[in-house]
Write a structure and sequence with these properties.
mainly alpha, 7 helices, about 70% helix
């Protein structure tokens, strides 16, 4: 990995976490759909990133968000879970020829029919864990499911716009 790659990832981590904790912390559509942009770090990691690094990274990224959100580990739990599920998702969607060693998760490289389902399923998995554990009440089950689906749709749209913006630059 070259220096430019490492610098790019340091910027992505810093930008995503800073945006999440200082700007998007209190932003929600109709107080139902939330955008957790810090997940971009795990979702955009190179395809061949070892599972160990994804899980450790997911834990620390979630932990930093938990500190600012005062959520006692819920973001860490949900982020570690999607980091753990990510390689399984790739195995299911692996093309016949496999992935190139330098393949990245991007709309331009993976195309919309692969990229958007990947983002949506990963976000939905995260949000289901996050909102169901957060509510911890069976009476709020339907509301938690609604919040998870609304947030996954909202996040997929935001991440799609980020990808389109990133393609032009």
């Amino acid at each position: 990995m070259g220096n430019s790659f490492q610098i790019k990832w340091i910027f992505i981590v810093f930008f995503s976490l800073a945006t999440q904790v200082f700007i998007l912390r209190d932003v929600a559509l109709a107080n139902v759909a939330f955008c957790f942009i810090y997940l971009w770090i795990i979702l955009k990691a190179p395809i061949h990133t070892p599972l160990f690094y994804l899980i450790i990274g997911g834990f620390f990224i979630g932990w930093i968000v938990d500190i600012f959100y005062n959520t006692h580990g819920i973001h860490s739990l949900a982020t570690v879970m999607i980091a753990f599920l990510r390689p399984t998702f790739f195995k299911v969607l692996t093309p016949v020829n496999g992935y190139d060693e330098r393949s990245s998760v991007s709309l331009s490289e993976m195309k919309a029919l692969w990229f958007f389902p990947y983002i949506f399923v990963m976000l939905l998995s995260h949000h289901l864990i996050l909102f169901l554990v957060e509510s911890a009440d069976a009476t709020l089950l339907m509301y938690s499911l609604f919040r998870a689906f609304a947030s996954a749709i909202f996040g997929t749209l935001v991440f799609g716009m980020l990808e389109l913006f990133n393609q032009k630059n």
